[in-house]
Amino acid sequence: MKELVNSQTLVIALTGGIASGKGAAAECFIRSGVPVFDADVVARELVQPGTPALAEIAAAFGARMLTASGELDRRRMRELVFSDPAERRRLEAILHPRVREALQEAAGNCTAPYCVLVIPLLAEHRSDYDFVDRVVVVDVSPHVQIERLLLRDRCTREAADRSLAAQAPREQRLAIADDVIDNDGEKPALDPIIKRLHDYYLHLPARGGGRPTFMRRE
């Protein structure tokens, strides 16, 4: 795999299950002045009308996955991949290599002491991100995930259960963690946790080092 351009920047991967609070944690890092690169944002850019990835998706899944204006029908695609693991893997095979390459390039061009890569599916693809120095997992209890999903997406309990089942289990995410954030609480509780992690990461060397940590709400 190609080496990072800047080997002095510590590369942190931020991950967690659906509705765990990854976005809120990323916002806290951004407020601390940390460069944050989000796999979901990259994926959305990759499937803009006229892009090679969108053309490949249309060829693989059919024109029914496009709206009348030629954009990806995200709702229809989401329903398909959450209900069919084989279709989800087919979509990931198209998007994942492109997303990984874009994130590696962003990290390699970064000159800050450290940067954060938000990668929801890191547990499923950890070996593809060997350029990452450290993994922080935003962890929540499954019942909290369900409650947040029902509130956020206004979906049925069955749909929420399918969304959780489509991702790697909680134990698999925790197994790859160097640092764990307990996020069963309210959103404001994340701020002091991220502040402590920020101070910690600023003093860690790139390319490894540091002790495992568990950040619990105060």
Can you tag this structure with a few keywords?
218 residues; alpha/beta; 6 strands
Report on the architecture of this protein.
There is one protein chain. The protein is of the alpha/beta class and 218 residues long. It has a single domain, classed as P-loop containing nucleotide triphosphate hydrolases (Rossmann fold, 3-Layer(aba) Sandwich). 47% of the residues lie in helices and 13% in strands. The protein contains nine helices and six strands; from the N terminus they run E-H-E-H-H-H-H-E-E-H-H-H-E-H-E. It has helices at 22-31, 39-46, 52-61, 74-83, 85-109, 142-153, 157-165, 170-175, 190-202; strands spanning 10-16, 36-38, 114-118, 134-139, 179-182, 213-215. It has a six-stranded parallel beta sheet with strand order 2-3-1-4-5-6, with helices on both faces. Strand 5 (179-182), helix 9 (190-202) and strand 6 (213-215) form a beta-alpha-beta unit. The N and C termini lie far apart (41 Å). The model has no long low-confidence stretch (mean pLDDT 89).
